[in-house]
Design a protein that fits this description.
By secondary structure, the chain is mainly alpha-helical. It has 11 helices and no strands.
Length: about 290
Amino acid sequence: MLFGTLSVGSSCSFFYINSVLLFTLRSKQVFCETSRYILLFNLLLADTATLVSNLLLYILAFLRLRISYYACGPLILLSVLTVTISPLTLAVMSFERFVAVCYPLRHAAIFTMRSLSIIIALVWAFSFIHILIRVFMLLYVFTTTSLDLQMNDFCSMEAMFFAPIFNYFEEAYSSILFLSVGAVIFASYIGVALVARSASTDKASARKALQTLLLHLIQLSLILTFTLSSTILTSVARRVGRLTLIRIYNVCFVSLNIFPKCLSALIYGLRDQTIRPALMQNLCCRWRCSLF
């Protein structure tokens, strides 16, 4: 009970911080015209949507409310959609940092407003295709299996995607996606590290880019672990009792759902010298307004 209350409270706190950071990224012209801030907004929007959908799922499970498959489906699909967007956006952000450090003179020509719009549209389109594939798989399973519309357990990814075909699809899709994104981030890190040794390179900028890329790798690892957590929990559920499973689910919710979604705010919101003053001003202003 206490752990569940703390989990919901921390989720609401991070949702508040992410919302203020989203507002901050649209409050000044420089944030709306700079490529890394535009990509950050897209990443943060996906992370916040994932946080909200997962928080709703957690509250339903915490209150032991059972809903129908039709009500559970949109929440699960929203979570899957935004989880797919995050790693793809991380890959684009890593490549953008690589170009900014290694090819600074070409950066403005490569990452224009038009090219960024196309890239972000492709990221969302790819994620929607992934969702459509899952929807068609769900329709196939529902038409070939007799199911009660009311779920027997709380709404979760494991309860929705119960057929073995989903596990095979998830393993193949996750392997291709995360290996590709991981290769892009790792290659960007190696490229920036090699250029950082050059005497003509801005050492401080290169060092900061290396730290950011390293944090992107950590983010990607956490997202991958969250994606595979459904398969892990399914196998664990066969070996442990329900009370132990609930405790494991609570730990996974905090470490794999809450923590990764606050990393974007920590990486950019607190480390970036341009965002930090505006973010702190908005946080303090809104906090004072809430008191009065």
